[in-house]
Amino acid sequence: MFELCTKSSLPGWVIMWCLALAIYVGLKAVSWVSVRMEAPAWKHVAYLLGWPGMDTVHFLAGHASRPLVSEWLFASFKMGLGVVLIWIVVPLIRGNDLLAGWVGMIGIVFILHFGLFHLLSCWWRSLGMAAIPIMNWPIVATSVAEFWGRRWNLAFRDLTHRFLFVPLVRRIGAVGALLTGFLISGLIHDLVISVPACGGWGGPTCFFVLQGLGVLLERSKLGRKAGLGRGVAGYLLCICVILLPSPLLFHRPFVERVILPFLAVIGARS
What are the domain boundaries of the chain? Predict the structure, then answer.
């Protein structure tokens, strides 16, 4: 990996997208191969090529109510907001590349995770498929466990819960499985974020280890007594554990060497 970082002639943003795509394709294949279900061939193709989620059983066999027009409009609004952030707000930011990079990253997430993926969910559900949105209002989470377990990127959560957490619980217990899961998530993010940036090593891993410790804190006797897993106290803990340390995850080398060049390529930065 170090040679990939130092000797590659490819731009960092190309390496990032290639690594992210390779990991996604591998995990998608695992989720599909592990569940042998009888379903029309077109459903299998749709799951593999037309849906970013990892819940094979629900997608192939489940049924969902059709989305309301308001949900279509909301998903479109979020995608439009991402477009505005990238191609209108980012070009207006002068003299602060770090801020421009962060706004650009937020715009990318709104276009993909909150916008496009939500629109895909609406489309598949309009056809009767159980394509549950992979983002579930993460901003309203009142505990760290709720944020990562039920609200943020449910595609990755579905897979890690089935293939990592459940098997590890039987071997090393719930606490060990929890910390191991977050550690592995951190290592994967280090691969996708730090390797293309040739820097910031260990930041994403530290960030996710901190998430595991945050979950343990809110589930401890002291945490339960202080109400850290609910209400205002839980919301404040989310800010302290998830939001404030986020520069560990998306560190400066990543923003400057990967995100800003990518924004320049797509016409958001001169």
Answer: 2-265
